[in-house]
Write a structure and sequence with these properties.
alpha/beta; 47% helix; 2 domains; 8 strands; binds 5,6-dihydroxy-NADP; Dehydroquinate synthase-like, alpha domain; 6-stranded parallel sheet; single chain; Rossmann fold; binds zinc ion
């Protein structure tokens, strides 16, 4: 049965190859002081930085720079960003980059006016903000996380060896996001395919849970087919605008809360992958690809019906003359072939994980209960060993 739910998406999107011009419509809604958040320099190399500075100046904004947001943003960087925002009394946090910049901007937004330590409050105690939240806007340059249209913010604490995501309420969602597929064309191939796998796995996390007849699962199947189709075109020709734009749009829908409405969700691949990330600082999508197949093969017997449906609906496996197990396994094999074609990480060793990390990674893995089997820590260790 489709469960009861509420649904609101608070982010205004501007999509397309001319979408940056809409920054001119958004900027007048906010005060003068803008904190410009970006990463390690890709936006300077592509010229996007200059374009954005020009638009900000034309709109009479005072710009306070906050560069150097690293992939998998750290708690130390969060403290730095909060300092910049407080010192300059900023009215808007403008993130230009990928999920790391968008997530970081959201984490800063709930921390600027917060008297407590944000790591302890939001990431250890999982409390909700009680302070005024500084608005966030995003210009997306890397596709995968869906951060442009959700309220998630993942922060890494290397000292505590924890990488934790907090999904905040609607009020933390970006007020607007600008999605121009052309910006993603300069991504190195490794980042492109990592993002593509991240999209696919976001859908899997919401699909592989529950057995009810649920509209969300039909939407998920369509999104999975779309991303598989477009990914193979983009892998051949990264400059194919049609494929890159479809991938960008799928990423947004994969994690803007729509496909989880009215149903349970799993998220264990992300829980394990994030803990791997805390130990290795590896690229997010690659941590997911490395553990996915061992995880799905482990839980397949407990959710056989759905894995069979996945094989037939997403991968076109013909069930005739086969057992349910055979059909389900053929689906996972087809997924494995696709992953290999994409060139994503197929094991944890290539991401720098060593045997001595396994116990710690399992300890740092949050166990969620929405999947087909509630894992024990020993199960997590077994999956990690299988992923090496
Ligand atoms: O820092 P720069 O120089 O900009 O380079 C970045 C970075 O090195 C580069 N890049 C981005 N756009 C580019 C580009 N290089 C060339 N041309 C461009 N157009 O790509 C690298 C990776 O960027 P990053 O933002 O780290 O990648 P991604 O978008 O995958 O974000 C990863 C972070 O998001 C979190 C992850 O855990 C990780 O911390 N996630 C956030 C989620 C959410 N908010 O809901 C959900 C996800 O599951 C995920 O956990
Ligand atoms: Zn993800």
């Amino acid at each position: 049965m489709l469960g009861n739910f509420s649904y609101k998406n608070a982010t205004k999107l501007y999509f397309g190859d001319d979408s940056l011009k809409y920054l001119n419509e958004e900027l007048p809604k906010y005060g003068k002081n803008v904190q410009l958040i970006y990463g390690g320099g890709s936006i300077k190399r592509t010229g996007l930085y200059d374009e954005i500075i020009k638009i900000l100046k034309e709109n009479g904004k005072e710009v306070f720079e906050d560069p150097g947001v690293m992939p998998n943003p750290t708690v130390e960087k969060l403290y730095e960003g909060v300092k910049i925002a407080r010192k300059n009394n900023v009215d808007l946090l403008l993130a230009v980059g990928g999920g790391s910049c968008c997530d970081y901007a959201k984490a800063v937004s709930v921390s600027v006016n917060c008297d407590e330590d944000p790591w302890d409050k939001y990431y250890i105690r999982f409390e909700e903000p009680t302070c005024e939240i500084v608005p966030v806007g995003c210009v997306l340059t890397m596709v995968g996380t869906g951060s442009e249209m959700n309220a998630g913010a993942v922060i890494t604490n290397h000292e505590q060896k924890l990488k934790i995501g907090h999904v905040f309420g609607d009020e933390v969602m970006p007020k607007f996001s600008i999605l121009n597929p052309l910006y993603t064309m300069t991504l190195p191939e490794r980042q492109m395919v990592s993002g593509i796998y991240d999209i696919f796995n976001h859908i899997c996390e919401q699909y592989f849970s529950g057995e009810d007849d649920n509209t969300s699962d039909y939407i998920s199947e369509a999104l999975m087919k779309s991303v598989v189709h477009s990914s193979l075109i983009a892998k051949e020709d990264p400059q194919d605008y049609e494929a890159r734009s479809n991938i960008m749009w799928t990423a947004t829908w994969a994690l803007n809360t729509l496909i989880s409405r009215g149903k349970s969700t799993d998220w264990m691949v992300h829980m394990i992958g994030q803990s791997v990330g805390a130990y290795t600082d590896a690229t997010h999508g690659m941590t997911l690809s490395a553990v996915s197949l061992p995880y799905y093969r482990f839980i397949m017997p407990y959710g056989l019906k759905k894995f069979k449906r996945f094989a037939e609906e997403v991968w076109g496996v013909c069930p005739e003359g086969k057992t349910d197990e055979q059909v389900a396994e053929e689906g996972l094999s087809a997924m494995e072939d696709w992953m290999k074609k994409l060139g994503v990480a197929m094991n944890l060793t290539e991401l720098g994980t060593t045997e001595d990390m396994i116990d710690g990674i399992a300890d740092g893995t949050f166990i969620l209960e929405g999947g087909y089997k509630v894992l024990t820590k020993d199960d997590v260790k077994a999956i990690l060993r299988e992923s090496m």
